[in-house]
Amino acid sequence: MTTTRAARATRPSADATRERILSAALELFSERSFEGATTREIATRAGVTQPLLNYHFSSKDELWRAAVDGLFAELEEALTTRAEGLRGVDELAAAKLLIREFVHFSATHPQLHRTITQECKSDGPRMDWLVERHVRPRYEQAAALFAPLVASGHVPDIPVVHLYYLLTGAGPTMFVLAPECRRLTGIDPSAPDVVEAHADAVITLLFGR
C-alpha cells in the first residue's frame, strides 16, 4: 500500500502533461507551421505517447488553438501586469515601459511572431481565427496607446497602422531570426544586455529619443 501511494504521489499530474504537450506543440507549430508539424512529432517532443496526446486534445486543430491561446494569454498577462504597475505614471513614460515589456516578451517568446508569420503564408481560416481572437485586440490596444502620443507630438504623425507594424516588426525580428543574428553578428540576441539594448533601439526608433 505504501509503495502504491508513493508512486501515485510522484506521478506527473494531468495538468503537467498537458502543459508539456502544449509547449512542444507551440515549438513545432512555430518552426514548421500547422501543416508541417504532426501530432506524432509533438508527442515525441513532449515525451508522451500518441494516445495520451489524443486523450488531452481530440484534434491537431484543437491543440493548435490551445497552444496559441496560451501564448497570447501570457502576453496579455505580462502587459496587463506592467500596465497596472504604471498607474499614475505620465503617458509618455508609461508607453515606453510598455513597449520595453513587449520587446522583452518577444525575446523570451519568439514563437508568438513565428506562429503568426507561419499562418500568414497560407492565409486561411486559422489566420481569420488568429486575427479576430488575438491580433485585432492587440492592434486596438496599440492604437489606443499611440493615438494620444501622436496628438501630443511624442510620436511622429504617422498612421497608427504603420506605427503598429513598425513596433511588431522592429521589436521581435532580432529574436525571431535569432539563428541568423548569431551567425551574422556573433551576438546572442537572448542575452539580457542585448535584449535591453534592442528595447532601447526600438524606443528610440519610435520616439526619437
Compact summary:
By secondary structure, the chain is mainly alpha-helical. The termini are far apart.
Structure commentary:
- With 209 residues, this protein is mostly helical.
- The chain has 12 helices and no strands.
- Helix 8 crosses helix 9.
- It starts with a helix and ends with a helix.
- The N terminus is likely disordered.
Topology, element by element:
Layout: H1 2-10, H2 14-36, H3 39-46, H4 50-56, H5 60-84, H6 91-108, H7 111-120, H8 125-151, H9 160-170, H10 173-176, H11 178-185, H12 192-207
Provide the descriptors you would attach to this structure in a database record.
12 helices; 79% helix; disordered N terminus; mainly alpha; globular; single chain
Note the main sheet. Answer: none
- What portion of residues belong to β-strands? under 5%
**Secondary-structure class:** mainly alpha
Q: What fraction, in percent, of the residue positions are helical?
A: over 70%
Distance between the termini: 68 Å
Low-confidence region ranges: 1-11
How do the helices and strands follow one another from N- to C-terminus? HHHHHHHHHHHH
Number of helices: 12
* Mean model confidence by pLDDT: 92
Rounded to the nearest angstrom, the radius of gyration is 20 Å
Multimer state? single chain
Categorize the overall geometry: globular
Strand runs, count: 0
